[in-house]
From TrEMBL:
<dbReference type="GO" id="GO:0016779">
    <property type="term" value="F:nucleotidyltransferase activity"/>
</dbReference>
<dbReference type="Pfam" id="PF01909">
    <property type="entry name" value="NTP_transf_2"/>
</dbReference>
<feature type="domain" description="Polymerase nucleotidyl transferase">
    <location>
        <begin position="27"/>
        <end position="57"/>
    </location>
</feature>
<protein>
    <recommendedName>
        <fullName>Polymerase nucleotidyl transferase domain-containing protein</fullName>
    </recommendedName>
</protein>
<dbReference type="InterPro" id="IPR043519">
    <property type="entry name" value="NT_sf"/>
</dbReference>
<dbReference type="InterPro" id="IPR002934">
    <property type="entry name" value="Polymerase_NTP_transf_dom"/>
</dbReference>
Length: 286
């Protein structure tokens, strides 16, 4: 996008922060990093890092969202950006940003609007800056990276570089499984017009069409067949939108595989990353 449009989007975000409506009342600091902060005239997506607190209500919301496979930060993202597209958010992860990111403070709780505006104006355009190189990228992420959070990309690239895992990219066909029991199990979890139902159905159908036949199949944290609820060697975990990504290494060390549907969606193409162990000794100890 052009820098002028990105600046307008940041002005609108400052409006939203000033209003302080729920859950923005939990935000303490907002930083800008990446191409825009460096001065690029065509910065691409806006990289924004948010530091926030939690309370009981917010924690309950996060737990509920995770239980039903939703993005637990969707409400905060929406409150920050409104209807605008083109943001990439990181939450409470400044210590995991790539080396050299140098996030620049934009807004801090207690600031006047004038102070925040001065910080924004201080991020001067630099015709020589160009766009920042895409961090933590491999071929399998190409075109999908905006839906793979940067800390996840960093972790996966680390595991690939150490030889611990292999990643295959798969284009899923939007179709229901052929197994009536699988169709019924997915129907009990999600409405048929849900993007999670569409993504899960396509992933299960892929396992059928590819002849994977894992001894147990888990979808968004639950076994597809509750009579086969023990996972271990060769079990397959289907995860939608990076659900419980922090458990990936544990599952891999137990001998499981992972099929990560990158972006569950009602109508757009569905892509998945099939993650398998290449060298278990190279996996970090638990």
């Amino acid at each position: 996008m052009k820098r002028e449009r990105a600046t307008e989007m940041l002005h609108k975000m400052l409006d939203n922060l000033d209003a302080g409506s729920r859950p923005l009342d939990l935000v303490d600091e907002v930083y800008v990093f990446g191409s825009y902060a460096r001065g690029a005239l065509q910065p691409g997506d806006l990289d924004v890092a948010v530091i926030h607190r939690t309370d009981t209500e917010f924690t309950e919301h996060v737990v509920g969202a995770l239980m039903y496979g939703r993005d637990p930060m969707a409400g905060m993202k929406r409150a920050l950006k409104g209807s605008k597209r083109g943001f990439q958010f990181q939450f409470n992860q400044n210590d995991r940003l790539p080396e050299g990111s140098e996030p620049r403070l934009l807004w801090k709780r207690g600031d006047t609007r004038a102070t925040a505006e001065e910080r924004l104006q201080a991020m001067k355009a630099d015709p020589d800056a160009g766009r920042a190189p895409r961090d933590a990228m491999i071929e399998q992420f190409d075109g999908l990276d905006r839906w793979i959070p940067l800390p996840i990309r960093i972790r996966l690239v680390e595991l690939v570089d150490t030889g611990a895992i292999e990643i295959s990219r798969i284009a899923l066909t939007a179709a229901d499984p052929t197994d009536p029991a699988a169709v019924a199990a997915l129907g009990r979890r999600w409405k048929t017009d849900s993007p999670l139902h569409r993504a899960a159905a396509a992933a299960v159908r892929y396992t059928e069409d590819s002849g994977m036949s894992p001894p147990s199949l888990w979808v968004q944290g639950q076994p597809l067949d509750h009579r086969r609820n023990q996972y271990g060697a060769d079990a397959l975990w289907i995860n939608l939108g990076w659900y419980h990504f922090d458990q990936l290494v544990f599952r891999l060390r137990e001998g499981a595989q992972s099929l990560e549907v990158v972006r569950p969606t009602r109508t757009q193409p569905l892509h998945a990353l099939h993650i398998t162990v290449r060298d278990i000794a190279a996996l970090a100890p638990l």
